[in-house]
Write a structure and sequence with these properties.
The structure holds two protein chains of two kinds. By secondary structure, chain A is mostly beta strands. Chain A is built from three helices and ten strands, in the order H-E-E-E-E-E-H-E-E-E-H-E-E. Chain B is an alpha+beta fold.
Chain lengths: 212, 156
């Protein structure tokens, strides 16, 4: 990208980062249409090493009402698509080859049901959210704060992001895995933390590509 | 012959026990790098958007939080000390040259971390020390067994 175009893009983004104006209609953003724009990572810090994991396979949609700043939706991540950089460890994570962790055969999906968002006063792009998080078949009420950047079609198009309006959603939170019934097997204590840090960075679009 | 082999093995175990930690520290001193591990963003248009967003957030050009700089290039995983034998994949962002970003594809990569090397060194040292101790004990026991009786050389 050349410098003038980058400056123009930066200027436009600076003015469009907050929620859209009240007169705009509700919009449904579809997530997971491009793997490179779908990043969910998890980090488990322990004595032996920090385990870093990722998945680029998340699907779902969120409907956002710019008049109220409220949003509802559902996002799903298949357990079998979690990757940590070591094949055997991935298998253990799925509950295969002697592993017990997430038991993908019994609980194939991690699901987040978004029930409410509220813009944070005094910020241009921060939202408090509430919902229900299901991991390993255990559902818990969940809340946190996310950064949401809206990228209108007029910016997304020239930036080659794709058709439609876009929203970038970022959030991170800690998951105490035992609360979700995940058992840390005997002997792997130094290898795995009881709390995993999850970070989410997703781009959603109002104009998802047609399925092939 | 067996005693000679046992002696060599015991000395080797001693050497490993003594050198495990210095080797781990030496590896770190020679090849250790403090980096932001980042799940690489492969979509150039997304990197451009994220750079623009960062610039919009930092109109004065001051870098601020290094995690935000790393976010331009992908999804930050954590700040780690890694053992890196080649700098080829290391990125020094122009937005903040004090930050080193190591772009990885976690689906297939697992960079060696300093904490893993130290953890391994600890257990290698303990294991080797235990083996050396066993070796010394065996050498001592077998020396007693092969020693001739005290009365064997006594004249009648």
């Amino acid at each position: 990208m050349n410098a003038p175009r980058a400056l123009l893009l930066a200027a436009v983004l600076a003015t469009t980062a907050g929620p859209a104006s009240a007169e705009e209609a509700k919009a449904t953003y579809t997530f997971g249409t491009y793997e490179a724009r779908t990043n969910v990572t998890f980090v488990s810090e322990a004595d032996l090493e920090t385990i870093h994991g990722v998945t680029h396979k998340v699907s779902g949609s969120v409907t956002y009402d710019p008049a109220t700043g409220d949003a509802t939706g559902r996002l799903v991540a298949p357990v079998k698509e979690l990757r940590t950089g070591i094949e055997l460890r991935d298998a253990h994570l799925r509950g295969e080859q002697g592993g017990v962790w997430l038991e993908a055969a019994k609980h194939p999906e991690i699901v987040f049901e978004l029930t409410k968002t509220t813009p944070v006063a005094g910020t241009k792009d921060q939202f408090d959210y509430q919902g229900r998080l299901t991991i390993h078949g255990v559902t818990k009420d969940w809340k946190g704060r996310a950064t949401i950047r809206f990228i209108p079609a007029s910016v997304a198009g020239p930036a080659k992001l794709g058709a439609g309006d876009w929203a970038r959603v970022k959030t991170s939170f800690d998951v105490p895995i035992r609360d979700f019934g995940i058992v840390i097997p005997e002997g792997v204590g130094p290898k795995v933390s009881a709390t995993w840090r999850v970070s989410i960075d997703l781009y959603g679009t109002t104009a998802p590509p047609a399925p092939k | 012959v067996l005693r000679t082999l046992l002696r060599v093995a015991t000395l080797a175990a001693c050497g490993v026990a003594l050198l495990a930690y210095p080797a781990a520290f030496g590896l770190d001193a020679l090849f250790g790098k403090d980096v932001w591990l980042v799940e690489e963003q492969t979509d150039a248009s997304v990197v451009a958007i994220q750079r623009s967003q960062w610039k919009a957030d930092h109109p004065d050009g001051k870098p601020g939080d290094p995690r935000e700089v790393a976010e331009i290039y992908g999804t930050p995983l954590s700040r780690e000390r890694v053992i890196l034998f080649s700098d080829a994949r290391l990125l020094v962002p122009p937005e903040d040259p004090s930050v080193a970003v190591l772009r990885v594809t976690k689906a297939s990569e697992n960079p060696l971390q300093r904490r893993t090397v130290r953890y391994a060194a600890k257990w290698v040292a303990i294991g080797a020390a235990a083996a050396a101790l066993v070796g010394f004990l065996l050498l001592r026991v077998t020396r007693r067994r092969v020693a001739p009786p005290a009365s064997a050389g006594t004249p009648a």
